[in-house]
Amino acid sequence: MLRCVNTLKLSAEEAKRNAGEIVPFDAYAGSEQRQGWFTREPLGIITAITPYNDPLNLVAHKLGPAIAGGNAVLLKPSNLTPFSTINLVEALFEAGLPPEVITLVHGDRELVTALISARDVRMVSFTGGFATGEAISRSAGLKKLAMELGGNAPVIVMNDCEFGKAVEACVSGAFCAAGQNCIGAQRILVQAELYERFRDAFVAATKKLKAGDPSREETDVGPMISQQVAERTEAAVSEAIAAGAKLLCGHHRDGSLYHPTALEGTPTTCRLWHEEVFAPVVMLASFDTLDEAIEMANEPEYSLHAGIFTNNLSVALEAANKIEAGGVMINDSSDYRFDAMPFGGFKYGSMGREGVRFAYEEMTQPKLVCINRG
Fold first, then answer.
1. E strand residue ranges, the chain
2. Catalytic positions, please?
3. Is residue 340 in a domain?
4. Which tens digit of pLDDT belongs to each residue from 326-363?
5. Distance CA 137, CA 157 (A)
6. Quick one: 214 and 319 in the same domain?
7. pLDDT over 90 for what percent of the chain?
8. How large is the average pLDDT for residues 78-99?
9. Which residue among 107, 185, 297, 359 is least packed, with the fewest CB closer than 10 Å?
10. Which positions ≥6 away from 321 have C-beta within 8 Å?
11. Domain tally for the chain?
12. Mean pLDDT of all residues in the chain?
């Protein structure tokens, strides 16, 4: 809730401070008698499609910048988590937002296809999976596309790290929100000298997590969005174990509740290693040198965030330069995010950035005015 409020406040501020700029025409030979500026103008109608995870703040990340830019929004939330979106839109209307600014729609794939392919729509902003993103890109036609399509976050743990902080942050980064977090730690790469100590501490901390009813205060890890998703996760872990991965803890399912699971020795050919798992599952692996760790971190064809724990600034900055990710968190797990920072992917499927200022600029277009005073 607080993050949603902050996202909307940031959007309101962006509308006031990012309205345009002066263009120094008179700085160029032959243009001494010219002056002008550009303003940021609305695109028009934006189709926004949001996922089931973080169903309040991720909707705010679409609506806030779009409204700040003067656009109208066709908003399609996930069919699995519509009620927080309905309540947010009603609250905006009650606060005075004209009802024609947001059209809230619910429906199936046929409806989504109509929303993204409509000629009057100027932009599609989508957060979700790669298969849907690829289908949208085929159907959208000539319009702007902004997509956040998921990640497979590596976290590098160096020998010289602050050990307790690294363990605690990696456990939280792997299992917060039942792992249904596109920047959650999925692959934890630990320097060989520290590996066994880190592994044992990580597994011990994971086993202390309480999985169960999310309405109970003592619960650390709640259920996944559906039993079907939990079953798919269970099958992917079983596949990795059959291929040679060693189970360290977890891999137990009660309906839609999948208990926090850690593996080591996962073959890099497994789906768990090179695809987004989006579940409370994490893989541990060891490395000898930083270059080896970076090579392992960069193996998947897409990425959002990465993390590294070290007390050596030179090592941290080298990793930040070489890791192929939209954001590198130093002495933080990969799952840290502040709503004002640029947020988006690297490599395959990288299309635009969220983060209020950056989404606002994606959702507006510059319009130039030039005056010849000669």
1. 20-23, 34-42, 45-49, 72-76, 102-104, 121-127, 144-148, 153-157, 185-191, 246-249, 253-254, 257-258, 261-264, 281-287, 302-303, 305-309, 327-330, 346-347, 364-372
2. 148, 182
3. no
4. 999 999 999 999 999 999 999 988 889 999 999 999 99
5. 37
6. yes
7. 97
8. 97
9. 107
10. none
11. 2
12. 96
